[in-house]
Amino acid sequence: MDGDLGDFLRSRRARIQPEEVGLPSHGRRRVPGLRREEVAQLAGVSVDYYIRLEQGRGPAGPSRTKSGGVSDAVLDAIARVLRLDETEHAYLHAVARPRKQAERPSTPRVRPGIQVLLDSMERTPAMVMDHRMTVLAWNALADAVLGFSGTTPRARSMPRQVFLDPAARDLYPDWQAVAAQNVAHLRVLAGHHQDDRELTSLVGELSLKSEDFRRLWADHQVKECSYGVKRLRHPVAGLLTLPYETLAVPGDGDQTLLVYTPEPGSETTERLALLGSWASTHVG
After folding, report:
1. How far is CA 28 from the centre of its chain?
2. What is the dihedral of CA 213, 218, 224, 230, to 10 degrees?
3. Coil, strand or helix at 219
4. 160 versus 98: which is more confidently predicted?
5. pTM of the model
6. By C-alpha distance, which of 74, 8, 66 is closest to 45?
7. Torsion angles phi and psi, residue 173, rounded to 5
8. CA 56/CA 44 separation, integer angstroms
C-alpha cells in the first residue's frame, strides 16, 4: 500500500478551503483546497520538508525522530492544519511511521474460552473477526443470520462478502452506507498493519474486481466501526435492525468481538428468536 501517506495528505488538504484557515482565497487555483506550501506554512515546517513527506521520500533535518521518522510534533501540527478527527489523526501517525510487526499466522485461532463465550450468547448474534475483517468464530444465531457455516473460510471475509457477493445488495438495504463503512474501517486496519501481505493482497483483489471498492478506496476515508446500527433483510426472518458493539478480545489485540444488541422486546428480537428456533430444526 505504498503511497498511502501522500494520497491521504493530498485528499485531506483538498477539502480545506483557504478562508477556513485564515488565508486569502482570491485568484484561480489549479487544485481544490490548500496548496502544499500553505500547509507547510501553517504547520510551521519548510515547504521542502512537507513536499518530501507528501511524496514519501522521508523527512530530513531537525524535525525528525532519532530513528529517522517524522516527529510527533510535526504530525500533530499537520493534523491540526488539516483538521483531522481522532481516527484520522491516529491513521496519519500509523502510515507516517509504520512499525515492524511480528509475523502473524495465515489462519488465526480463536481461544476455546472465547468460543464458549460466544455459544453462551444464545439470544444474541455474535462473532469474532481478525484485523483483516475475516470472521473466525461465531455462535449459532450469528450463523442463522449470516450463514457462515455454509461458506468457505475465504468467503467469510466481510469486505469480500459486501463487494464480491451479488446477494449482498439484497441482504443490506443500506448497501451503499455499509460498503463505505467497510472501506473506511478496512483503511484504518491497513494503516496499522502495513506489513501484512494478506491484507495488502485483499485490498488488491477488491480493487481489481470491484469498481465500487476502487472508488471508495481512492476517497481515503478512515473511520473505526466500533459501534452503530446495521439493517439486514433475511430471507426467513425478514428485516432485522441490529445495533452492534465491538470489543477487543483480551490477550489478542488483532481480534475483535462483534455483538449485535437488538433492543429487548423489539420486533427484531422477536424475529431473531423465531429464526433461532427455525434454524435449530433445519440443521443439516
Report:
1. 36
2. -30
3. coil
4. 160
5. 0.84
6. 74
7. -60, -30
8. 19
Look-up: residue for cell 449485535? 260
CA-CA distance, 38 to 46, in Å (whole number)? 10
Q: How far is CA 43 from the centre of its chain?
A: 28
Rounded Cα gap, residues 24 and 77, in angstroms = 21
Of 179, 176, 192, 199, nearest in space to 248 by CA: 192
**pLDDT score, position 104:** 60
Spatial contact of 40 and 46, defined as CB atoms under 8 Å apart: yes
Burial group, residue 137, by CB count within 10 angstroms (0-12, 13-18, 19+): buried
Q: Give 9-40 pLDDT, tens digit per residue.
A: 999 989 888 888 877 766 667 778 888 998 99
For residues 36 and 101, which has the higher predicted lDDT (pLDDT)?
36
Burial class (CB in 10 A: 0-12, 13-18, 19+), 30: exposed
Of 202, 58, 210, 47, give the one whose Cα is nearest residue 131.
202
**What pLDDT, in 10s, does the model give residues 174-227?**
999 999 999 999 999 999 888 889 999 999 999 999 999 999 999 999 998 889
One-letter amino acid of 88: E
Scan for cell 455483538, then name that residue. 259
C-alpha span between 263 and 202 (Å, rounded): 35
